[in-house]
Write a structure and sequence with these properties.
heterodimer, A: 251 residues, mainly alpha, MetI-like fold, B: 322 residues, 13 helices, flat
């Protein structure tokens, strides 16, 4: 998977173009088919499906960004400590990570939603926490393998400090692709979980915030005649999962 | 003797790590339930009038820390309590056992299906990859990355629409499972197994891991030697794939449990996934916590099993431990 920066920028710009979910409601234009003016038609409340699908990307950007921040911040921090020091920190991380990763991510997110209330913030933090063990384990494993390598010894011999070796040579140069891959998995998890909890009928993103999950949920519950009302968010979800799911093992 | 002692200590260490992992998972689960606002009494029609009685009977009062402490103390003694509102009065352990046994009828075939398909796809698509079959397998792998929920929706809507079309034309009689969500049938169970084994990116992940496993074995010197001798390769591959396959199954088990909740809900099938969702909806915390802990213990248990099997069958693992 190679996500071009231009493609990501276009996605973000499109998602954040102005849209007023309340002004878009129009009973006279309900259930319209695809055509000029409404290229994918309208839903049961007369709202433009193309515009809502576009705006649904905001959840991916905002909640996905927060989830990646949580997973990246905690995962890289804990993994780096365990990988660099080994011994007790590594054993503690194994036990903690083992416990957290043993709980299925959907179960963890549902429990977080029960405890703190559903919504995009809880979804993001829940998915972020669910991804911490994978990120930490990947970083710890990589650092543990690298810290005794010859280039580290050579760098020390050249008088380079531990902080620079650790932050630049090990973390940045050698683990950034690995971390990027794991964060891609986190984003995929968020998109899938958002749609899943909305489909299951609880804890999803509440209206009037637009999300692909609540679009799908409302389309199915309202029995909207326009197939794009569920087809568009389903396709958007599928395309995002496809684009963010890592294809190959990182180098 | 010293070598066996070292292996024993290493295995004991891993067992201890597993126990700690279950404890961490249990604390997190109990803590989140203790933090959740509201309780099972809120779901009762006469909740307000019976609150005083039920709160002490069900042990729902107290501070957050007191509830976590009480919950962990009860779990550590194996006292999972009784279901409060979903199946009132039934011991949680009985419900967890029934749910797990029922769901295993989906989980085991789905796991086997996923592994067989993944290794088949890896063997077919792992070579030069120019054949039409290899391209189809790659396409299937990509499709499996779609969210399971979309697959479930497509399957349910597709089967219903096709059945309805055939019924309208008078080509078939009304099947017993059609529009009867409470009655599990062969079609519904088969679809659920297929989706669980194939969906939610599991197939794509499994195929990738299976390809790398086969690639490692293909280039191993002992395989080349066996090949040169003209000996049978299948038993050799099977022996060396056992441990990585168990590890693979352990790694994908959390995703399977999550998928289980979706497919059991989508196809109206009974099992641990449905029970977990319903117990959460009924705020039946003891049952929901018991099921969540059962999921976590299952994952940790399978990981530990894969480690133990690795030590028994793989001399390299034994040497590394010793």
């Amino acid at each position: 998977m190679t996500l071009r920066p231009g493609l990501i920028l276009a996605f973000i710009v499109l998602a954040f173009l102005p849209y007023d979910p309340l002004a878009d409601v129009g009973a006279m234009a309900a259930d319209l088919g695809a055509g000029p003016g409404h290229w994918l038609g309208t839903d049961h409340l007369g709202r433009d499906i193309l515009a809502r699908t576009r705006v649904g990307g905001r959840i991916v950007v905002l909640s996905g960004g927060l989830a990646m921040l949580v997973a990246g911040g905690l995962g890289v921090g804990l993994g780096a400590l365990a990988g660099w020091f080994g011994g007790l920190p590594a054993a503690a991380l194994r036990a903690l990570g083992g416990g957290l990763s043993a709980i299925p991510s959907l179960v963890l997110v549902v429990l977080a939603c029960l405890a703190f209330g559903g919504g995009p913030l809880t979804l993001a933090i829940g998915c972020g926490f669910a991804s911490v063990p994978a990120v930490a384990e990947a970083v710890a494993g990589r650092l543990d393998a690298l810290r005794r390598e010859e280039f580290v010894v050579a760098a020390r011999g050249h008088g380079i400090g531990n902080a620079r070796i650790f932050l630049w040579h090990l973390l940045w140069v050698n683990t950034r692709r690995l971390v990027a891959r794991e964060l891609g998995v986190t984003l995929t998890l968020l998109v899938v979980t958002e749609v899943t909890v909305a489909y299951l009928g609880a804890f999803g993103v509440p209206e009037p915030t637009v999300s692909w999950g609540n679009m799908l949920d409302h389309a199915l519950r309202s029995g909207c005649a326009n197939p794009w009302s569920w087809g568009a968010p389903a396709l958007a979800t599928a395309a995002t999962v496809w684009a963010t799911a890592p294809a190959e093992e990182p180098t | 003797m010293a070598r066996f002692a070292a292996i024993g200590w290493a295995l004991a260490g891993r067992t201890l790590t597993s126990i700690l992992s279950v404890l961490v998972a249990g604390t997190l689960i109990v803590g989140l339930f203790a933090r959740a606002p509201g309780d099972a009494i809120d779901t009762l029609e006469n909740g307000d009038s019976v609150r005083a009685t039920l709160e002490s009977e069900w042990g729902l009062g107290g501070s957050f820390l007191a509830r976590v402490g009480t919950g962990m103390a009860r779990l550590s003694t194996g006292d999972f309590g009784e279901s409060l509102t979903y199946k009132p009065g039934v011991p949680v352990l009985d419900l967890v056992r029934t749910g797990v046994v029922t769901s295993a009828q989906l989980l085991l075939p789905a796991t086997l299906l996923g592994l067989v398909l993944a290794f088949g796809a890896a063997a077919l698509a792992g070579g030069a990859g120019g054949s039409a079959l290899a391209r189809i397998m790659r396409l299937l792998s990509g499709i499996s990355a779609l969210p399971l929920v979309l697959g479930a929706l497509a399957a349910v809507n597709g089967v219903n629409a096709a059945t309805w079309a055939l019924l309208e034309r008078g080509l078939i009689d009304r099947p017993s499972w059609f529009a009867l969500p409470e009655e599990p049938g062969l079609v519904r169970t088969g679809l659920a197994i297929a989706l669980l084994g194939f969906g939610s990116a599991r197939f794509a992940q499994l195929t990738r891991r299976a390809r790398s496993m086969l690639a490692v074995l293909d280039s191993a010197p002992f395989v080349a030697a066996e090949r040169a001798r003209g000996g049978p390769l299948v038993p050799l591959y099977a022996r060396h794939l056992l441990v990585p396959t168990l590890r693979l199954a352990a790694d994908t088990l959390p995703a399977l449990f999550a998928g289980l909740i979706v497919v059991e809900r989508a196809f109206h099938l009974p099992g641990a996934g449905t029970s977990f969702w319903e117990s959460c909806a009924h705020r039946d915390w003891p049952l929901a916590a018991g099921l969540a802990l059962a999921f976590a213990a299952g994952v940790v248990g399978l990981r530990l099993l894969s480690e133990a099997v690795a030590v028994v069958v793989d001399p390299r693992e034994r040497e590394a431990l010793a």
